[in-house]
Amino acid sequence: MTISIAKNADQLGQKAGRMAAILIRQAIAKHGQANLILATGTSQFATLQQLIQEDVDWSRVVMFHLDEYIGLPLSHPASFRKYLQERFLDKVSPLKASYLIDGEVDPKAETERLDALISAHPIDVALVGIGENGHLAFNDPPADFETEKPYLVVDLDAACRRQQFNEGWFPSLDDVPRQAISMSVRQIMKSHHIICSVPDERKAPAVRDNLEQSVGPNVPASILQTHLNCSLYLDESSARLLSVQTVQNLAD
Length: 252
Hints:
CATH architecture: 3-Layer(aba) Sandwich
Oligomer: single chain
CATH topology: Rossmann fold
Mean pLDDT: 96
Number of helices: 8
CATH class: Alpha Beta
Largest sheet: 7 strands, parallel
């Protein structure tokens, strides 16, 4: 793992988006196509904004996404399918394929559908974030580090649901769904390259804990410490609690 610290969220996104594009182009040159995972949420705004401006042959890209609420309609402002459609898919030329999670159908059948699809598409580049509770995708603590199943039905903990409410996606805490379909930790870790974008001061405790504590299920994103090709993009606010030694050891 390496870290890069930008002055602010916009600069963070520019760096992360440019690197994602470079890696996607490299995968296309090597394999003829690139298999991509995209994350959602406020942490990804600037990264995706940069990525859609990059010179990429999107007709050679297959996209998966990390997670989606169960039971939330596509029309809801918090729908991650809606997010990716409006902020990415509608902004670029047509992809070779895009596999969005449908949280409105039977969750078991949907995870099985997605499992088969992603198992046939080794991931070249994954764009992810870290939650305020340290989650990776919707793998809240204690996360399942053992399952090989690519997609899971997960329960969302109180801290995760509170973050979604505080970010303005829902009118009340009670409106935040209690379950979601999430890509598993092991599936994310199978990605050849991982780009993790984490802006904002409120993420600083999670950034510190996931970089400076031992790897374990209670700090789910700590698993990224073990990935050889993970690039963590921070801004000065999200990096403010890191020790000087951590920054020196991981600086790119």
